Amino acid sequence: HLLECRIGIGVDYRGTESKTQNGVVCQKWSENSPHIPKPSLYPNASLEENYCRNPDHDIKGPWCYTTNPETRFDFCNIPECEEKCMHCSGENYRGKVSTTESGLTCQTWASQEPHAHGYIPSKFPEKNLISNYCRNPDGEPRPWCFTSLLTKRWEFCNIPRCDSEGADFFYITFGDIATSPPAIAGQKCLVGNGEDYRGNVGVTETGKTCQSWASQEPHAHARTPENYPCKDLEENYCRNPDGEIKPWCYTTDSSTRWEYCNIAKCDDVITVTGTVPVVPPQVPPQVPQKVPQQVLQQVDDCYYDNGSSYRGTTAVTTTGKKCQAWISMRPHRHSKTASAFPDADLRRNYCRNPEGDTAPWCYTTDPETRWEFCNLKKCADPETSQTLTQNIDCRVGSGREYRGHIATTVNGRTCQEWQSQLLLMLDVGKPNIHRFYVLEELLVAVFQILILGPGRSVSVYNNFHFCGGTLIQPQWVLTATHCLDRSSVPNFYKVSLGLHTEAGLEPSAQHRTVEKIFKEPSRADIALLKLNSEIKITNEVIPVCLPSANAVVAGGAECYVTGWGDTKETGFPVIENKVCNRPEFLNNRVRNHELCAGNIDGVSDTCQGDSGGPLVCEEEGRYVLHGVTSWGLGCARPMKPGVYVRVSRFIPWIMRTIRDN
What we know:
Layout: E1 63-65, E2 73-75, E3 144-146, E4 154-156, E5 173-174, E6 177-178, E7 248-250, E8 258-260, H1 293-296, E9 302-303, E10 361-363, E11 371-373, E12 377-378, H2 382-390, H3 435-442, E13 443-451, E14 458-460, E15 467-473, E16 476-479, E17 493-497, E18 510-519, E19 527-531, E20 558-562, E21 569-575, H4 577-580, E22 594-597, E23 614-619, E24 622-631, E25 642-646, H5 651-660
Parallel strand pairs: 9-12
Antiparallel strand pairs: 1-2, 3-4, 5-6, 7-8, 10-11, 13-14, 13-15, 13-17, 15-16, 16-19, 17-18, 18-19, 20-21, 20-23, 21-22, 22-25, 23-24, 24-25
Domain Kringle: 4-81, 84-162, 188-266, 301-379, 393-420
Keywords: Disulfide bond, Hydrolase, Kringle, Protease, Repeat, Serine protease, Serine protease homolog, Signal
Protein name: Plasminogen
């Protein structure tokens, strides 16, 4: 029977609605007037008659081309289904249950009270985090929610599994095709992150034997065949039931809870068997988006402007290197994912320009080369060339060849002459040079001063530091409280800024002593240092921006740390506290006023000498201080990310302390 409502974004909607949300009749998919659709690009989307459909997985739901020549397409007003049961582990559950299994009311996903969290609906549109409905955005055994009870952070919801008879409306049939999740014809090699891997490797990458998924010895766990019925957790074979970066398993070694497995890659070749198409998890639709006809036809190996609209299939850089797949985090971890850039068509390993760079580019499969521009030429544009001869005050693409005479900014400010060296007022937290250098501008080193005794001279340990910090105002530095355990005397410490080496011999270096120390009163690992005089703001010394009070960074956001210890500078994703507190990671050690960040595979992390330094996240071209480096279990250990004090929780204390002192 047909279902006249949608589940989630309506990819499986097969109803008969044929008008847009504004009441305009839809154009038939098979007709070429007044618009020219391309139904052949979507062979499995059931593009019949003029019914609304969502063949390209648009997050706004089903749509259609319209019979109005002035409106190419519009969305349809399809009501959302209220699911009464869940399939598998409820990853796609879109029902409206909003109480936990113990009867607690769920906290609204868009709220940060009473529990701050990283599951921000706008950052995870595909997870359908609506109202306070139970969902499963992170690969748990079943849907859950944060609770409205301060003493209970989160709890599972009691959602029944759909029975095999199809009594619940989720099972909708169209001829011989069922919309309930098909059994996946799994891969015997690695595609993407390996969620559909169904091979029989049962050994980890370090050679340890895998523990059977049905066993609770030597490691008790919740990744059981009963909790994940669709993940094929057979025997002790490596699997990826919860969206990790690749297949893994618990080990039979009692001292090693789990490890990744070394599964051979399929070299991006996807084999489909049977009559049901198999789509790898998280791969965006391999078709162009709803764009004007002339762009749809423009899929050759050249690009217009800066290539943001390029939708070709070139996957080689200017030096001949093969592009890394956008879904992959190997060999280079990154934040340019299809969910973060839904309009950029980040599919396969095709060259793209998701952020408005000067030309299409890609990450490379060479571990030594993070990214390069692609081997593409610019499309000829005779109309633009003709315009250039008539008016030099226009630009092509990013304007690299612009030679006009405009000398004011978009805000009306007069530009400084290029030959001038006058120092202009610098924007707080805004980089003036490449990120890998500007982060050093935000970092300060805290040096120890040896106090020899009353009335005696003071000496500095040459070339020795023990902590980092961050300049937040010309006379104020934010650091970690544990960096100040050696003494409570302010002039025991010296602060140095504008350094690029620990020797501190650069002309840009500035040194100050500490006038006052302010430790956070509730004993959180965050402290303020008031310097004996203001720092001069220069190109090498810039205060960082502070976040708004109680601001939360979304899970998966790419942030950066800088330190004077082993880290220097590195970038890695924020990990939601709920995930970080799982037994296999930090096992409930992370508190609400802290946040986790790091690479789960342990490639890089903060370490000794980095304490007190900044964790910053780029927001609208500025670096915002979201974390103060606090603690970790070792350095760069797999499954043990670093922990940072969440700065936004202490904004009222920071501002009050500065104001009163």
